[in-house]
Specification:
The structure is a single chain. This protein folds into 2 domains: 3-140, Rossmann fold, CATH 3.40.50.10790; 153-250, Bacterial fluorinating enzyme like (Elongation Factor Tu (Ef-tu), domain 3, Beta Barrel). Helices cover 17% and strands 32% of the residues. The termini are far apart. Strands 8, 9, 10, 11, 12, 13, 14 and 15 form an 8-stranded antiparallel beta sheet that branches. Strands 2-1-3-5-4-6-7 form a 7-stranded mixed beta sheet, sandwiched between helices. The radius of gyration is 20 Å and the shape is elongated. It is α+β, with helices and mostly antiparallel strands. The protein has 5 helices and 15 strands.
Length: 251
C-alpha cells in the first residue's frame, strides 16, 4: 500500500483540505494520507517547494505526493511526474522543478474535460496509490514548466547566499550548503555577516548558545540556518526572505 502525502496552500480554516481527503477516501477507503503542510503561503511556489523538497525523500520510493497549489495564469495543465522514484500529482506551475535538481524520468499531462481542474486529482492520486499506471490518466508530454533555483555563490574567499525560508519559530533557512562550507572552511577562520551583525562560529546545536543569543547551525537538509535561541530570529534580527547571508574566509 503506497502512502499519499498531501501538501497545499488551502489553510485550515475552511473545508478544502477535508474535501480533498474525502475525494481520496471515496476511491480508496484504506488510503494512508500524510499531511506535509496546509499552511503554505497562498500562491507562494518558493514556500511550497521548500516544504516538499525538505521531506519527500524521507518517504518510501513509490509514494504518491498530491500538491494542491493554485495554478498561475500561464498554467494550462495538471501533470503526473516521476521524480527520484516518487510520484507527484500537481499543477504544471513550476513547483516540481524547484524540489529537485533531477528532471522527471516520466511525465504525463492529465486528461481533463473543459472546466475540470484540481477536483479530479484526489481520485487520481488514490488510483495511483492502488497501483494504477500514470499513463492511464493522460498522455506522455514534454511540457514541464521549469524555474531555476537560486544557488549560493561560492569562491575561495566567500560564500554569498540568502534566506530562502522563514519557519514557524522565526528561524531563517539559507541556500548555503554544508558541502561547500566544509570544503572552503578547512584550516581557515571565517566570519558570517547577516544584516549589520557578524558571528565567527557555526554551532553544532542550538543549545550551544545562551537563551536569546544568535545561533548558526546546519539543519537536517544540510543547509545553513540561523535564528535566536527561544526567540523569533526573523523579527528580532530584522531579516526576511531573500536577506543576504555572507561567509568570508580568512587566508
Amino acid at each position: 500500500m503506497r502512502i499519499i502525502t498531501f501538501t497545499s496552500d488551502f489553510g485550515l480554516s475552511d473545508h478544502y483540505v477535508a474535501y480533498t481527503k474525502a475525494g481520496i477516501l471515496k476511491e480508496y477507503p484504506e488510503a494512508n494520507i500524510i499531511d506535509i503542510s496546509h499552511q503554505i503561503k497562498p500562491f507562494d511556489l518558493a514556500h511550497m517547494s521548500h516544504a516538499i523538497q525538505s521531506v519527500f525523500r524521507e518517504f518510501p520510493t513509490g509514494t504518491v505526493h498530491l500538491i494542491g497549489n493554485e495554478r498561475t495564469q500561464k498554467t494550462t495543465s495538471y501533470i503526473i511526474a516521476i521524480i527520484e522514484e516518487h510520484i507527484f500529482v500537481s499543477p504544471n506551475n513550476g513547483v516540481l522543478s524547484l524540489i529537485s535538481e533531477k528532471s522527471p524520468t516520466d511525465l504525463f499531462e492529465i486528461d481533463l474535460d473543459e472546466g475540470e481542474g484540481f477536483a479530479k486529482l484526489p481520485a487520481i492520486a488514490a488510483k495511483l496509490a492502488k497501483g494504477e499506471q500514470p499513463g492511464s490518466f493522460g498522455k506522455p508530454t514534454e511540457n514541464f514548466t521549469e524555474y531555476i533555483s537560486r544557488k549560493a555563490r561560492a569562491t575561495r574567499k566567500e560564500i554569498a547566499g540568502h534566506v530562502i525560508h522563514v519557519d514557524h519559530y522565526g528561524n531563517l533557512m539559507t541556500n548555503i550548503e554544508k558541502t561547500d562550507f566544509d570544503i572552503l572552511s578547512q584550516n581557515k577562520s571565517y566570519h558570517i555577516t547577516f544584516g549589520r551583525d557578524t558571528v565567527k562560529q557555526v554551532n553544532a546545536h542550538i543549545s550551544d548558545v545562551e537563551l536569546g543569543e544568535v545561533f548558526f547551525i546546519f539543519n537536517t537538509s544540510n543547509k545553513l540556518m540561523l535564528g535566536i535561541n527561544q526567540g523569533h530570529g526573523a523579527q528580532l534580527l530584522g531579516l526576511e526572505y531573500d536577506s543576504p547571508i555572507i561567509i568570508k574566509f580568512e587566508e
